């Protein structure tokens, strides 16, 4: 699996305003900006992302995923 593959999987299951994925095939980091995160705690945001990955979370394809999640407003504030 490549970063592009993982990005595509997440994007197909979650409407993202911004999505960055980096990784080496086992350990991944992602920055995800989605309006779906509005009003959700970080753990709930992560669960939304994990839901897009489904069974892949339980295989070596996505061994470890660290993510930073933002709403569009949080992202705008973070980058200005």
TrEMBL record:
It holds the Pfam family BolA. InterPro entries: BolA, BolA-like_sf, BolA/IbaG_stress_morph_reg. Belongs to the BolA/IbaG family. This is BolA family transcriptional regulator. It comes from Ramlibacter algicola.
